[in-house]
Amino acid sequence: xxxxxxxxxxxxxxxxxxxxxxxxxxxxxxxxxxxxxxxxxxxxxxxxxxxxxxxxxxxxxxxxxxxxxxxxxxxxxxxxxxxxxxxxxxxxxxxxxxxxxxxxxxxxxxxxxxxxxxxxxxxxxxxxxxxxxxxxxxxxxxxxxxxxxxxxxxxxxxxxxxxxxx
Amino acid sequence: xxxxxxxxxxxxxxxxxxxxxxxxxxxxxxxxxxxxxxxxxxxxxxxxxxxxxxxxxxxxxxxxxxxxxxxxxxxxxxxxxxxxxxxxxxxxxxxxxxxxxxxxxxxxxxxxxxxxxxxxxxxxxxxxxxxxxxxxxxxxxxxxxxxxxxxxxxxxxxxxxxxxxxxxxxxxxxxxxxxxxxxxxxxxxxxxxxxxxxxxxxxxxxxxxxxxxxxxxxxxxxxxxxxxxxxxxxxxxxxxxxxxxxxxxxxxxxxxxxxxxxxxxxxxxxxxxxxxxxxxxxxxxxxxxxxxxxxxxxxxxxxxxxxxxxxxxxxxxxxxxxxxxxxxxxxxxxxxxxxxxxxxxxxxxxxxxxxxxxxxxxxxxxxxxxxxxxxxxxxxxxxxxxxxxxxxxxxxxxxxxxxxxxxxxxxxxxxxxxxxxxxxxxxxxxxxxxxxxxxxxxxxxxxxxxxxxxxxxxxxxxxxxxxxxxxxxxxxxxxxxxxxxxxxxxxxxxxxxxxxxxxxxxxxxxxxxxxxxxxxxxxxxxxxxxxxxxxxxxxxxxxxxxxxxxxxxxxxxxxxxxxxxxxxxxxx
Lengths: 166, 572
What we know:
The complex is a heterodimer of chains A (166) and B (572).
Chain A: E1 7-15, H1 20-30, E2 35-42, E3 48-56, H2 59-71, E4 75-80, E5 86-97, H3 100-112, E6 116-120, E7 124-131, H4 133-147, E8 148-153, E9 157-160
Antiparallel strand pairs in A: 1-3, 1-4, 2-3, 5-7, 5-8, 5-9, 6-7
Helix pairs in contact in A: 3-4
Chain B: H1 9-19, E1 24-27, H2 34-41, E2 46-49, H3 53-67, E3 71-75, H4 79-82, H5 85-93, E4 98-104, H6 120-124, E5 130-133, H7 140-152, E6 158-164, H8 165-168, H9 193-205, E7 209-213, H10 215-220, H11 223-233, E8 237-239, E9 254-257, H12 264-272, E10 275-279, H13 285-288, E11 299-304, E12 318-321, H14 324-331, H15 341-353, H16 366-377, E13 382-385, H17 389-397, E14 406-407, H18 418-428, E15 434-439, H19 440-446, H20 450-456, E16 460-466, H21 471-480, H22 496-502, E17 506-510, H23 516-525, E18 531-536
Parallel strand pairs in B: 1-2, 1-3, 3-4, 4-6, 5-6, 7-8, 7-10, 8-9, 10-11, 11-12, 13-14, 13-15, 15-16, 16-18, 17-18
Helix pairs in contact in B: 1-2, 1-7, 3-5, 3-18, 12-15, 16-17, 16-23
């Protein structure tokens, strides 16, 4: 019965104190909803933190999850930004195996996607890419055949445009 | 000259409880809670010393449900705290305000597997409305104020406070606070006039309306307003298990309980209505049966203080967020009488055609005992129940006529709830008759509280509907599992009369139908402490009507069918 489900990005403003992340993640876990990425950062000059959560699953359950998140005493705001025009970015560090002959091709890909070389070794490079998830997926797809040794992605962060609140 | 002594956080905590108006604490001590019990020693707050921490939570729950005031529990760390989990779940599921204070190991030992250490905030995250682990003695006044505010406002619920021993023993210089600063905790504002007008408009088009009343109506005291609405509309009222008592069940417009074991006439009304208005009820699976077929052609309106209930189970045509009483009172001026003469005639005809009934021969029947209890108490007693057949029969045969007079674990379905809840209810309502209607199974889960009842001298009447079976599971095994009785016989139970006598509790036994009235009357008049009535009813009897779990209302069974039934598809 399960259809492929679109990915959702939920942004939370929460109290910055111990236990909040557990309360938030329990809301997902209880409904057997998987969190795909999670970014937490303190909001400067306040006692609040911003959580950006990416997850996928059926829309009905997600609605419940957003409502239940809003209900948590430590959650000030919970918004599902799916379908909104927002600025979405993530950062990836990728270590690619390459010898001197393969290097040029890797660097071309890096340059095309406006990546940066952050480590230059004899047999490998570490590249840094920032941008939308689709862009990162595309560049990683191109690098895959070259031999990705390690990959770390930050998960998505997001901000609403203009006067809209995140 | 000596400086005035700085009070310890434990003393400040007890003062905070007093400022919150707490009169009773239900508790059990232990190493990590000693500073708290020490502070309690000098206070006016009365300690109800229980025999098991689960009992403390159910007593606090019963006290809270019967009085509307928050119930306070005080236990120690580790097993003391984990023993409260069932009671916290029970309170959370039924929106009962409760404060659970737990001792905890000293802060330097947290997370190091100290003696009697349990991560109780971690264990209880999913079953509390909110919780705190106190790390600074000066946070005590603020946290206490917040805890009571959160427990009592909006949709009430349990709040747990974990109190490390070094914190409660440390000096606290912080002052009592009256304001709370909780930016993530919103309370619903008053209902929008536009919503009320729309609600009234939907009502005005109805020809066959039903008002469906739940726990939210009990909590907000919406009963009178709902009755005025029902009379103004000339519409029938049904209630959920927990809604009993909000609107008097002996009123002519009241059709009793709906749902799985509701009255056939309530269920017929729900099946055939063209509008159902839920007032503080959450379309529980015991009520709805098969979601896709539940009132599929009727307009569905939902009034709830908790916005997360909107479309959780049923997609309503209109959701109004707010306190049940406020919404109904503000709605009243917009509504007018409906043309429901035919509809009411039909509902009353169903009442005549499908009355609650049970076999009158073949020995002592639970239904007969409960019918006699209803005749005796005339809806003027507080009734508590356990969970199972006796609970459903009590809900059917004992009419509740006033608010906060029916205490039963609905959401959690906690066996062992009834008796301790009755102790709490009695402590909160001295002089009022309180009957704990329990099964022989559930009673054995918390019967150690007989000592507590004796010590507190509460005139609680424990009526054991004793069929020597876990009757509801047995009923399912009979109806759906080919009579394969697995794990349901209660062999080895004690002689409950002798057991009561061992505790110094007055006890009665009922074996014959002819003795029911006389013995219940004697028990009702016995006010010199608790008493126990062991009613040895027929072993195999079934609760009807019944809508099998997950089935539509059209599958309602009024008596035992000749043919075998398919296994239910719904939850439990």
